[in-house]
Amino acid sequence: MMEPAIIPNQPNLDPMIPVPATVRRIVWETDDTFTLFLEPPLFDGMPFSFEPGQFNMLYAFGTGEAAISISSDPGKPGSLAHTIHRVGTVTSSFSKLKRGEMIGLRGPFGRSWPMKQAEGMDVCIVAGGIGLAPLRPVIYSILKHRKKFARLTLLYGARTPLDLLYRVELEQWNKHDDFEVLITVDRSDSSWKGHIGVVTNLLSYIKLDARSTIAMVCGPEIMMKYTVEELKRRGLSSEQIYISMERNMKCGIGICGHCQYGPKFVCKDGPVFRLPEVEHLIDKKEV
Amino acid sequence: MQTQDLSILLRKHPFIADLEEEFLKTLLGCASNALFHEGSYLFHEGETASTFYLIRTGRVALELSAGQRGKIRIQTIGPGDVLGWSWLISPYRWHFDGYAVEDVHAFAIDATCLRTKCENDHHFGYEMLKRFSEVLEQRLNATRLQLLDIYSVSAK
């Protein structure tokens, strides 16, 4: 008999029933991407908690549901944020929400980034576009427990300077002595003084100790593919690389099959995978 | 700067870090130090590519004049990178402008000198060609990825 599905962080909650969450505010990061701040719901009186890399199913009443990565600080349970790219009907509905309005929330779901395994290691974070959103909680966590980790590097690529997320925070992070932040854009005019080119180029500007580095990569699949190739060319093994996959998730608990990826369900077995788990699937046209 | 000092510095550049000692000496005969201040141009599109550069510090933007669209920055080249292969391929002309986004320290390699040495010593020439081919392949892959416009909504 199949075991009933549970949400690990909220074991007493039915994972298929959304709970109401109140909108606190919306902050536009770029022309088409915004961060939705929610009043974290209480579950049986317990505060909402999550691990870096997990996602929620957010429900715009009357429109539909979408899987959205949590982009806030897991150490601050009083604030829950999701950074959303406005690409379709549901995400467009979220973008029009006003303070005090309600949405439905199920979650958190999915496997998180390997924070425990990363302790004592150099951490190389490679993000492309909105792929920075699910990695931001990793950065918050590491900065909060900085001594537990060795070298910390963020390599971030975006389409243009105007498409960079979290610009204020990027500047703040860049001021940390023990946090190397390199940013590149695919195209720009001469007003941009930073790097231009693909995010993989940035790997040649950092010190990467292949013996002691754990890499966390998130972005468009083709970007992750090239990043993985470059990381391996620089001596990292597949076991040292983690990626976060994106698929059309529906149930969030590995039942409906919408997000099936070969033998895996991205919602339940991922979205964060250790590379060897999915490496054989990455280049396949259809799985 | 003494030739010996230059040799030590050259060794630190990833492009030639593992180059055979004999080949390094050959290359050294064509190398000099170069400094370009922020805001200056290293070269312009259409000019003879008489030099290529191994960047030590600073960043160079490759710019293309695109008519009414003005100057477009295609790529930046930074520390540890190789700047330029037009010197290798006839008619040896730059295809872009090279603009110093910040102060740039580089090794300048005299192209005529190096081409002559490559012709005279095919082992050395082949070694150079292999190294440049690797750079070319990486740049080509990066350019393809850039062309895909992977962060646009339509690309997903």
What would you note in describing this structure?
The complex is a heterodimer of chains A (287) and B (156). Chain A has 287 residues and is α/β, with parallel strands linked by helices. Chain A has two domains: 19-109, Translation factors (Elongation Factor Tu (Ef-tu), domain 3), CATH 2.40.30.10; 115-244, Rossmann fold, CATH 3.40.50.80. Helices cover 18% and strands 30% of the residues of chain A. Chain A is built from seven helices and 17 strands. In chain A, strands 12-11-10-9-13-14-17 form a seven-stranded mixed beta sheet, sandwiched between helices. In chain A, strands 6-5-8-1-2-7 form a six-stranded antiparallel beta sheet. The longest helix of chain A is centred in the C-terminal third of the chain and has 13 residues, at 221-233. Chain A is globular, with a radius of gyration of 18 Å. The mean pLDDT of chain A is 90. Chain B has a single domain (2-147), classed as Jelly Rolls (Sandwich), CATH 2.60.120.10. The longest helix of chain B has 26 residues, at 122-147. Helices cover 34% and strands 27% of the residues of chain B. Chain B is globular. Chain B starts with a helix and ends in a 9-residue tail after the last helix. Chain B has helices spanning 3-11, 21-28, 111-120, 122-147; strands at residues 31-36, 41-43, 51-57, 60-65, 71-77, 82-83, 97-100, 104-110. Chain B has a four-stranded antiparallel beta sheet. Chain B has a four-stranded antiparallel beta sheet with strand order 2-7-4-5, with no helix packed on it. Chain B is built from four helices and eight strands; from the N terminus they run ααββββββββαα. With 156 residues, chain B is an alpha+beta fold. At the A-B interface, β12 and α5 of A face β5 and α4 of B.
